[in-house]
Design brief:
The structure is a single chain. The chain has about 100 residues and is mainly alpha-helical. It has a domain of about 55 residues. Helix content is about 40%, strand content about 10%. The protein has a three-stranded antiparallel β-sheet. A hairpin with a 4-residue loop joins strand 1 and strand 2. The radius of gyration is 15 Å and the shape is elongated. The N and C termini lie far apart (about 35 Å). Bound molecules: zinc ion (ZN) (2 copies). One zinc ion binds next to loops.
């Protein structure tokens, strides 16, 4: 699987968030964002951690089960803030292009 995070700034225009069709409503974006932060193994759980050792996001259940021995497991809320800010920035850019 492709890593969710990392190397994004070098791949502008090719991230998941950039793939929103221009007709996407804010609600739909929220849904997509939710899917993006849902744990692949536990769909009811939000990912809370980013394991740098595996380059994977995971929920707390996965963190306990799979990443207990990993050295770099980071809480993800900072990254989510970053993603949301980025989404807003992309909107802004797309509006700018239409003008
Ligand atoms: Zn999980
Ligand atoms: Zn890990």
């Amino acid at each position: 699987m492709r890593p969710l995070f990392g190397g994004e700034s070098r791949n502008r225009g090719r991230t998941t968030l950039c793939a929103f069709p221009s007709s996407t409503t804010p609600q739909e974006k929220q849904e997509l964002l939710k899917n993006l932060i849902a744990c692949p193994n536990h769909e009811k759980e939000e990912v809370v951690y980013l394991c740098k050792d595996h380059d994977k996001t995971c929920c707390f259940k996965c963190a306990i089960a799979d990443h207990r021995k990993c050295e770099e497991v980071k809480v993800i809320c900072d990254i989510l803030n970053y993603l949301q800010v980025k989404t807003v920035l992309i909107d802004f850019q797309q509006q700018g292009e239409r003008l």
